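Hi R.,

As promised, here are both runs. First protein below:
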Amino acid sequence: MAKSVDQLTRTVEALRWSIEDYRPAITSAVQAEKLVLSAVAPLVAVAAGLRTLTREQSRAFGEDKLGGSPNSTARKQLQRMCTPAGLAMPWWRPDTLADALTAAERLGQASTPRMPPASSWQVRPDEPMADATGKPRKYENLTGQATVIGVHPSTPRSWLGARRVLLTEGLLKGASALTGLLLESGVDADKLRLTDAEKDMGPDALADAARNRLRDIMAGVPERHRVLVLVVVGVGNWHHNPEWNAIDLRGGKEVMVAFDGDVETNPAVYAQALQLFQMVENKGGEPSWLRIPDDGDAKRGIDDFLAVGTFGELLAGLERELPEPPKAETVLRNGDTRMNEEELRYEKFTQVTDEFGGTSSAWVRVNDIIGRVAATVQRRPATEAELETGRFDARASDDAEGDVKVEISLRGPDGNRVDATVHGPARLLAEPPDRWHLTEGARVPVRVLEQADWPPKDPDWLAGAKRHRVEERKRSFVWQQMGWVPTEAASPVFIAGNSVVGARGDAAAQAAPGITDREVPAASRFGLHPLVLEDGHMDKAAVADAVRTVLSTYTAGAWSSDGVAAVALAAALRPTVPVLPNSVIFFSGARRSGKALPMSTVLPTPVGNVCLGDLAVGDIVLAGDGTPTRVRSMSEVHRAPCVRVHLADGRELVTSTNHLWRARTRAQVEAGHEPMSERVRAGLESVGSGSAATLEALADALGLPEPLLEAWVVSAGIPFEDLASTYGPVRVYPVGEVLALASAMRGTDDPDHPTPFTTVTATALAVMCTTGTVQVDDGNGGWVDVDLVTVADTEWVRCITVEHWTGTFQAGDAVTTHNSWTAKQVMSFWQEKPGAFDRALPGTAADTGYYMENAVAHTPIWVADDVAPTVDKRKAEMTEAKIGDIIRAVFNQASKGRMHASGSTREMMRPRALFMVTAENPQAAASEMDRVVHVVTGEKFFGDDAAKDACDELARTSLVANHVTAACVQMVAASINRSGSWADVVAHWKVLRTNAIDFSLRKMGGGGKASRHAEMAGDLLLGLEVLDRLVAEVGLRDEFGPTVHKLRLALISYVRISLNDADATSPGVSIIRALRAALASGSMHLATSTSGQPPYLNSDDLNEQVRINQMLGWSYPSAEGQGERPGGRRVGELVQYGGAWYALFDPSVAFNEAQRAHPELILHGSKAEPTWASAWSEGLCGGPWARKKTRGGRLRSTARVQGRDVVQVPLSVLLGLDEPDSKAQQDPALGLIG
């Protein structure tokens, strides 16, 4: 009793303010008395926005602050809590406050900033209702209001970075702490009263005036006294709040946890304090605990203490470690178990009744193995609904997979303690320990398995381990994916590797990455490194420098085509858009070709010369610059035609016909300038398209080499038309633009510009070469003339790749050769460290199909590297099939269904990555190549050598490209503040994608057949769209806006080329090519209606007659007396009509024989009727005979000729001698014979 009287006396003596001092804002005596007893200064209370509301006032207040219908749940709840009166308590988040103060500084209004609306509202009723247990609900949050981390709205910007932070529970406790802090720092108590002028103001004006005056007072507090006071609604309402992103705790900032005094007695409160300690440490801070003397009241809070004590006395109770965890009272029962840490043994509680009815009890040893569940982790990918709304759905985690860590301690044979940790899936907790080592994904350390007492036999041991030290168990949730993930605050963040990035840079407090090298072995090489200011906002000046560097480097001519640069930049940044991509980029050499060296080729090594056939992966060879480098991969050995390249300095090298060389013509040397100069580009913009002509005719008219002129034209992005041809495209260009370009190029004479070069195949090198007209890279920084290219035998060859950053290695007489690197440049935008993807891309073609499917389902971008030929037909088919499956899955945004052994459906792995493939050859299936952007890395692929080296240097030594990616992520994450909600952000990007697809379709033309490629172009354009927005965000619109626009057009133009490439592998083209090849090889033949004679007759030119008949499957033996002989099976006839020749094929026989002879062209699963229909639609079939119709009026692929159904193909098309007869295809009514 004496203690209570003494405490009351001290409280009364310590009171500095009366209930009248809080008027006119707080008129309720109940609420004012609470503020007096909590030692909250009137100025601090009013500046915080506290005000009394009566029931009548709550109606207008609700309409003003809450909006919505008067009958909404929140508005009705407010009226109920304000009957008869209640204290309205607004909460402000530190991040929104920081934004408001920053905006005010920019506008020159730092002293009177415009406050944002409160983030949340709480009410303290005068007459609180009771909860289900009968306890009064002293504070109520309005329905639908978020529980946020709060800060006093008068907190100056400089205080947000204070070296000390105090976190307490409840808004009034925070106001009490701030009052005590100000008094402790020397602020006079009278300055914390309301002035007479302020008392005459209305509620809103009074709050603003008080807020601004208090901010000025706080700004004058010396830095050493400043403590950032943060408040939470309850001890458990601080997890995953995005507000933590505005509070930088790095560098060991002190965070004082000031929960109520029951931390030492309440296990639940203690557990929250422990988790808060762990979170602070993870963010780089130093946690401590404020022990509040309870004076017999275990619930005594910080405001109760400050009512009688000072802030300095409060800090005297600061402790670096939490107290021992409180123990819950337990009643022991027979059979209860425990883990005895001191004795290191597992025990059971046993009760024994003696013969006289007496009982005794004891803990009895069972074994010497103790354990506890140290941590559990739930993991799952985001649901579609979460990705759309951005809000974390806790209910979706009920079925989430999980992992567990079980700590084991036992006594070894020598008597010493052995500690180890078992890792595995959460289902371990439902399996007896003797089955753990059999569980898939479980890892039981050898030092545990080797112990004689392992595993524990007692069936209750696992239950005892689950109960042991439960309060210390760490429970966490991680995302089983990279990319955008939702948060509880509906402000999504982006995960890449171990990085988590949001609007305020590092967002590790909002989401935890769950993809490690265990799930995806390359995961740790992914990462994002945002450039941010101290408050976490984007450092726009630094980002502008990064954007300038990337765009200048990537558009300087490293690739001969702007289209490739556009594709690379778009692919790199496309995953930052919050709409999953369906783009696939396929890098390959010339169609159906490899890039390889004969097995007998001699390669220089640091210890002498070695034959290619004797090398293995991991061996050391010499790079192009002469430094040692390791062999990274090797293709299977296969046969290929070869050529011998003779150099002017006497060296020779035998290569496959499609091996790549860096070469330049004399004309290029004499030109000596950059084909991508901005001056030329600017000149082109003023020239309109006029009539059109072939490039060959223009080159002749201008007196320029056609290859050089074409390189300039394609690099400049001048449009052209491709006309289908069996020999390839005939390119028709607008005369006006080409003439302007040629004129500008010929007028450019700048010796400082390096000479352009071209990357060509060995075959192309032979075509270009006459003595002294072509040079190749000599591997020593110079160039050497090519004297001669001669045909060599067909040899066994193999392709190798090396780890050197240039991809080059020396072969033959130390001639340099190389592989492509564009995919590595794209991946540098996502690298955790400089050069992380330099030695190896994240995936290879050797990976299993399931592995690839797993990778593209869990990463934002993925590469399957080095799809190469092999002599193993089955292996080659399997590789191509799995790549094809992933291509279809990514493009169609659909995954493969699978079942568990039990018959239940396994979770679908939806693709989320932009997928890239590097290969020596395209896919055989036209339908797969129709779903990719095909980048051919053959002739004329690379441009300026110095520009290429600059790209390499940027990727290998810096994170500049990565900074641009991270900035795009930050910008998209922050756009929620402008759009309203994440759902609005996603909807906006979906509209942009639709618009981009429509724009691409208009630019590409081609109607329906271009729709897929227009979709891919539109999808990729989002990568350039986000880049364009970043350019504007950092103030580079005038400098680089035109560059990004040109990249857009170049991308569409390049994808259009990919469309033409896809047409060349269509089913119709493939059947004609297969028939042509099979006839020429003698695997089948065409005849006349009178069998036994060659079908083609030409009395004027017997040599042509023999040549054509040989192409139709007929052989002419040299022995006398032997006539012409047909080869293989007869598949049709050759007839002449109206002066033209036509092949009339038996549709079934011809198709089956062509497929048997050339399954690489006509794939398994192809059917005759749709294949012939494709040939008709592509203008490859045609003739004078009318096609048959179905009953529904649809045209069939066959015509009825002399009582037989046949497919008619013009001989000129079949043999590749002329263009398709498109007129006959378009007008089937021309026929005269039924």
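And here is the second one, sequence first, then its structure tokens:
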Amino acid sequence: MRAWMERSLDDTRDRPRYSSVRAAGLVCRPDGPEQPLVSKAVKFRVHVFATIVLVAFVVSLTAAFLFSALGRFERMAEESAQAVFDRVADANAAQLSGLIDTAGRAVRVLASLERALYLPESGAMEPAQRLLAAFVASHEPIYGLYFGLDGGEFVQVIAVGGDRRIREALDAPPGTAFARRAIAREEGVRVERWEFVDLEGASVGHRESRAEYDPTERDWYRTARAHHELVLTEPYVFQSSGALGLTVARRIDEAPGVVGVDLSLAALSAFVAESVAGQPGGLLILDPAGRVLAFGGDASGTALRAGFELLAPLDHSGPPEFAALAEALGDAAGEISRSVSLDGQPYVLAVREVQALPGVSYRIAAFAPLSAFDRHIVRARDDIVLLSLIVLGLSLPLAFLMARQASGALASLARDSERVRTFDFSGDVRVDTLFYEIDVLGQAHRTMKESIHSRTEALSAARDQLQDLVNSGLALASRHERKPLLNEIVAGAMRQSQADLVSVWLLTEQDTLELAACSAEPAVLPEPLPLRDEHGSPATGVLPVFVAVSRASLSVARPGDDPRFDHDFLDAFDRLTACHSAAILALPMLGADGRVLGVLHLTREAGAFSEAIVPFCDLLAAQAGMALDNQNLLEGQRVLMDALIRIIAGAIDAKSPYTGGHCERVPELALMLAEAASKSDEGGLAGFRFDTEDQWREFRVGAWLHDCGKVTTPEFVVDKATKLETLYNRIHEIRTRFEVLLRDAEIAHLKTLVSGGDVAESRKTFAARRTKLIEDFAFVAACNIGGEAMDDADVHRLQRIGAQTWLRHFDDRIGLSHEEATRMAARPVEALPAREPLLADKPHHRVERPAAQRHDEQHGFRMAVPDCLYDFGELHNLSVRRGTLTPEERYKINEHIIQTILMLEKLPLPRQLRRVPEYAGTHHETLTGTGYPRRLNAEELSIPARIMAIADIFEALTAADRPYKTGKTLSESVAILAEFCDAGHIDAELFELFLRSGVYLSYAKRFLDPTQIDDVDIDALLEGRG
């Protein structure tokens, strides 16, 4: 990006600014041969071309208008029809839902009435009949209302009204409004009585016969008796009239029976027909199986034919339109409002779902042919076509005349444009035209020549300023340290603004502005400028503070006369910088998040700042703000990362007193030795340098993290002070077993005394046994300390002592953790009491090493890995020849360096910290290749890695804060380092530098107790090492 910008600016700079001189003055023109605006092969006349364009425009506009209008009318007709039938469908859905709800409410009310109504003591059914009749009379759509009982009793009221078919089916006399039927048991015989009444309730006829009808055998009765809520039957034939219908029924609460309401499909069809009367199309009610329950519609409007059957599937009912309608309904679910094609004709369709009862839904479909709504569209289409032809006939001649009149002016402008293209503005074009736009274009030609020269000069100056601004931005981006960055900001502002003085004020954590850089360094730095006065209000009387608080640029001519600002600050600042502030331009420097980072303060001694340079200075201040923000962010990240690293190192030191302050002191010593090596010009160290701060930081981070893997090392291993110690010292278990053996011996002695045996011999035997046990335990306890090396005789004696047995009476498999119980499971169960050796290595003492902890060769680790993770065997631990750690525990201690490397290599370290794993993970390697974990040799170990090895060893030798040892004196520690050097474990040149540069003594004075610091004979130690 930077190379492209610089190349573009160079190309611009190298081009000739002017290539021809006209009478008007110096103007710009492009290099190369001149090219005409229009190819000479193009011969179109302006008025002909304009006429063609206008005619095409008018014709296209007319056609588009006609097409849009017709389409709009068709959509309006379709939308109007759809809206009508949406309302029809919604109204019928609401009415059907209300009808079913009415029937359901009637059933619920009757089912909840008291028992006496259904099972009167007198056996008379007249009160129940009158109640049912009142319900039927008050709800017209209901065909009949009844109830039946388990004993076969049945009471029913049927609304006959004026329906001839019902009256004939019931054989009712003329004038019948309601038919009442009652079935009761009289003297063991079921008797059926019919009574026919008029609207006034007066009887117009009656009859009586043996009852053949048994309500308990009907589906509606059995279904309702089996449920507690309302039930809705499938359509069936009513026994009383032979008509098709539905039944809503519910079990009676206080009596063993069922209440039901009958809804006739014929009544539903009449109800539907009445709702769509006068509307084209039709309306259907369909059950969940797609069968027709009711239909109503205008046969003439839909070409529908009568004769379809109720309860037949829609695609087999009546006219062919129904088959197409069934196909349209079968592709969609839920509510539908759209246009469909039925039998090749466009129809509008509205479908709604009505939930009669939970799980039972009916569909209402309203439809009509679209042709019933588009008659007015045909008339509108004819009117629009006629009007369009009239407009077209008038527009063509008018377009030709207007194009002819405009062509002369356009031709003059075209000729003059050729001259303008070559920057020749010598002609004075006068355009005589009726068109406003062409007249304005002529005036623009006249003003172009006067403006081009000044514009070119301004563009050239702006280009130079922009180039300088780009260069300043690139320079700011390349500065990562605070001081060079501030100097670059000052230098860039001086170039951009031509100011006499530039100062940079930065906002501090204490909410003050502090002078951070100035083009004229004052002898005494001014006091920081607080953003708020003693009352807590913004101190806007001070000009830099005003800009910081307002976050807006400010240009002030004669600031000494401006009453808004404190003259004392201006005068004091002028005296400090030896500059008179005749004009000031102050600009806020903002970060990426809009925070004010500081103020860029520019001063001129004569004249005000030009308005033209203010935008460039604003851009420079924005660049400076972003650069400062980035620098703050980078510095904050470095500080945060260093703090986290120190926390990790401190946590490792705090984890165990056995490491003391190791992680804190090793980096200090390593940095001291690295500084001495960087200054050395002798031998193999002559070419070693840390040239940049990033390199120093990389080494410092590696030194701080050199033992970060110790966070994975168990404390009981690090702190193991005795051989039998795990989380506690198991010598107490061993002592208890000795106590058991001593107690057994004492018991045997007492038994001898009680039984009348040889008392003297028994006492002698007991005393010898007691002495032997005391001596053996003392030996075992001494072996547990690990202070002296053990030889083969000691190991053999330990095995002889351990071979003694004791009697265990209690189960050693109970009260264990899950992990310990799992290890014990492999051992056979022993019968109690069980005889066990005094000291033993048992199978459950061995903890298997997980496969995940077997570090393979891909990391280059070459350490012998013990088979077990831990071996807590008592003889195995007590037989350790030197120290307290078993081979498994020794590996666990040394494994910390493996964990250090693995942890650091997994971190997404930036490029400048890529060698941190190397610096942190090689301080246990030796020049002879005998170290760990990778057994690197001298050729594979860098100088920083060798420095880390010396620092780690020397700190460990001199550390006095370890509970298991005292710190060695300076001379002792240096002598041991010399032995390591002789063995090839550490670098000889660095060891010599360590001594001759005085690093060892400087470190000792900072970190060692004064009692440890003694004289060191450097010459004697280095004698013979050339």
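A quick note on the second one: Residues 731-878 form one domain. Let me know what you think.

Best,
J.
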